[in-house]
TrEMBL record:
Annotated protein name in UniProt: Multiple inositol polyphosphate phosphatase 1
UniProt keywords, alphabetically: Cell membrane, Disulfide bond, Glycoprotein, Hydrolase, Membrane, Signal
Example of a GO MF term: acid phosphatase activity
EC number assigned by the record: 3.1.3.62, 3.1.3.80
Intrachain S-S bonds: C68-C417, C273-C287, C451-C457
Pfam families: His_Phos_2
Residues of the signal peptide: 1-20
Family: Belongs to the histidine acid phosphatase family. MINPP1 subfamily.
Reactions that this protein is recorded to catalyse: 1D-myo-inositol 1,2,5,6-tetrakisphosphate + H2O = 1D-myo-inositol 1,2,6-trisphosphate + phosphate; 1D-myo-inositol 1,2,4,5,6-pentakisphosphate + H2O = 1D-myo-inositol 1,2,5,6-tetrakisphosphate + phosphate; 1D-myo-inositol hexakisphosphate + H2O = 1D-myo-inositol 1,2,4,5,6-pentakisphosphate + phosphate; (2R)-2,3-bisphosphoglycerate + H2O = (2R)-2-phosphoglycerate + phosphate
Length: 523
């Protein structure tokens, strides 16, 4: 294993042990705590409702000034709730076989199982047993996107009162079926009642996709070679980090149920818990094996992986999403130009709607600077790494159930305001009107450090403070051979001396006891 992975692994392990907490304090399942809903703790497997209902602190959204009207909307959304993938279905089939072996072992010649063993384990079979395909959008996911469209249309009627044309309402999706199906479910809701098809008066609409090999706007993570190499190098370290946590929980389960669960069993049971709770609303089987503290700890490991491999853990994670950010800004500039030149209604785009994946939405969220605290916005603009999300029970703002649940979406709404709008902070560059941007995450206005910690600021401030600092990079320089100079890997040397230097020089403790790294080229 390379030095880069070794240093990362040591950092993660030290971070874990320095903030360790006892699991033995909570010896009963979360079912005894009526206030604890496991469906709110499933990280990126959470259904959309779990993320939508979570607010960011006590932030009070801006009041849109009188006379300001929305003229364009950008949407970047993840697909809705989906079934397990083919690989994961096979894992659950293997879990069923192994659970049967464990139960037979637990009998130890007795006629019946020990009373501590939950009855559902006996003869359990995966709900997806026999399935040869997976990963498709399920009915719950269709419902999420359909009702999201209904709410958006009701919230911004000025944007969706025009007659449909694909150049006015652009709908784009990746070539993955669950993303395009999500776009279709959304479109059915958005244009319901505006057509002549069937009792619901639906209408046909266009959904466009690019080839997976060339889609740098929505699948940049598939075309960015630098990122793929980075992720491949870090995945083993993240997996190694989970091991002591899984082992600790496995030991607790063995004592609790008198079954010889292994760390792999814990990982598979946690996956089953997430699938049962999110897709089937079953919370009294796999999930009920764990205490609330164990659920929160497993959730945290998932959130940490999201942070390290898709989020603020490394600047390459979000810099590769620049084509998407540039596309969003360009669409707003075109809308402003159309208004300034008094183009006739129905001749310019009013909404650009995109449907993709967590690997798309999370980097875009980071480019906007959402879910940051204190000086972290300045740090990411200097390409400096951030502190890892603190371990439970400490509070954290980075939670997968909020950052990237199924159906997660970021909306950027462009407003046209009178030239003397009282909310103005600077005059627009030669425009007749003032133009402002409001950013919503999961339909909730969210503060952006680059916009004076508000959700509503002038388009010029948005570009100058949030967009332009990222433009010192571009997709080619970040993702091709040139990126080796911009994102260099550490040179080989003595592992012992490197680790000693790393531990002495690059760790510092913040007020919450989490760990920071001050070296630019490390996590």
């Amino acid at each position: 294993m390379t030095l880069y992975v070794s240093v990362t692994l040591v950092f993660l392990l030290l971070f874990y042990f320095c903030s360790c907490s006892s699991l033995s304090a909570a010896a009963t399942s979360f079912a005894t705590d009526e206030s604890f809903d496991v469906r709110q703790h499933l990280s990126t497997v959470s259904r959309y409702g779990a993320g939508k209902e979570t607010t960011i602190g006590s932030y009070v959204p801006s009041t849109i000034p009188e006379g300001c009207n929305p003229i364009h909307l950008n949407l970047v959304a993840r697909h809705g709730t989906r079934s397990p993938t083919k690989k994961r279905i096979k894992e659950l089939d293997q879990l069923a076989i192994h659970l049967d072996e464990l139960l037979n072992e637990a009998k130890r010649g007795e006629k019946s199982l020990p009373q501590k063993i939950p009855s559902w384990l006996s003869g359990w079979q995966s709900p997806w047993k026999g399935r040869l395909k997976g990963g498709e959008l399920i009915s719950k996911g269709e419902d999420e996107l359909y009702h999201l469209a209904l709410r958006i249309r009701k919230r911004f009627p000025e944007l969706f009162n025009a007659e449909y044309h694909p150049d006015i309402f652009s709908i784009r999706a990746t070539q993955v079926p669950r993303a395009s199906a999500s776009a279709v479910a959304f479109g059915i809701g958005l244009f319901q009642g505006n057509g002549t098809l069937g009792p619901g008066m639906h209408r046909a609409f266009s959904v466009t996709s690019e080839s997976r090999a060339s889609d740098v706007s929505l699948r940049f993570y598939d075309t960015c070679e630098t990122y793929k190499e980075y992720r491949k190098s870090q995945e083993p370290a993240v997996d190694k980090f989970r091991e002591p946590i899984l082992e600790e929980i496995a030991a607790e389960l063995v004592k609790r149920y008198q079954i010889n669960f292994t760390k792999q069993d814990v990982a598979s049971l946690w996956f089953l818990c997430k699938q049962e709770a999110s897709l089937l609303d079953i919370t009294d089987q796999a999930c009920n094996l764990f205490t609330a503290s164990e659920v929160e700890l497993l959730e945290w490991t998932d959130d940490l992986e999201l942070f390290l491999l898709k989020g603020y853990g490394k600047s390459i994670n979000y810099h590769m999403g620049l084509p998407l950010l540039q596309d969003v800004v360009q669409s707003m500039e075109q809308a402003i130009l159309a208004k300034e030149e008094n183009h006739k209604p129905g001749t310019f785009e009013k909404a650009r709607l995109r449907f993709a994946h967590a690997e798309t939405v999370v980097p875009f969220t980071c480019l906007l600077g959402i879910f940051l605290e204190g000086s972290e916005f300045e740090q990411i603009q200097r390409d400096e790494p951030l502190s890892l999300p603190p371990k439970p029970p400490l509070p954290r703002i980075w939670r997968g159930s909020t950052v990237a649940p199924f159906g997660v979406n970021n909306m950027l709404v462009l407003y046209q305001c009178p030239g003397n709008a009282s909310h103005s902070t600077s005059a627009s560059k030669g425009y007749k009107s003032e133009y402002y941007v409001q950013v919503l995450h999961n339909e909730i206005p969210v503060p952006m450090p680059g916009c004076y910690n508000t959700d509503f600021c002038s388009f010029e401030v948005f570009k100058e403070s949030i967009v332009n600092p990222h433009l010192k990079h571009n997709f080619e320089s970040v993702c091709t051979a040139q990126a080796k100079e911009e994102f260099p890997s550490p040179k080989p040397s003595s592992i012992a001396s490197k680790l000693l230097k790393f531990i002495r020089s690059f760790f510092q403790r913040d007020s919450y006891g989490s760990t920071k790294i001050n070296q630019k080229n490390e996590l």
